[in-house]
Structures are given as structure tokens and as C-alpha cells.
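Researcher: We're teaching a course module on how sequence relates to structure. For the next exercise, students receive a sequence and then see the predicted structure as C-alpha cells, so they can try to spot secondary structure elements on their own. Here is the exercise chain.
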Amino acid sequence: MEVRKLMATVFSTGTHFDLEICVHLDHFIDIRKSIWRSED
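Model: And here is the predicted structure for the students to work with:
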């Protein structure tokens, strides 16, 4: 039972971590797009 609870915790935090990375990537892409626009 404890192992299952541990796996659930790791999975939920891992998913949250993946979402954080996706959000940061979105911001990074937006910044790069705005830089390209300002150069034109």
C-alpha cells in the first residue's frame, strides 16, 4: 500500500514538473518571437 502511495506522489509531482517545463518553454518561445519581430 505504501509503495502505491509513493508511486502516486512521484507521478503527481512529476506531472507538475513537466507542466512547469512546458510553461517555461512557452515563455521562452514567446520571448524569441518578440525578439525576431523587433529585428524586422
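Model: If you want an answer key for the exercise: The first helix runs from residue 2 to 39. The two ends are 59 Å apart (CA to CA).
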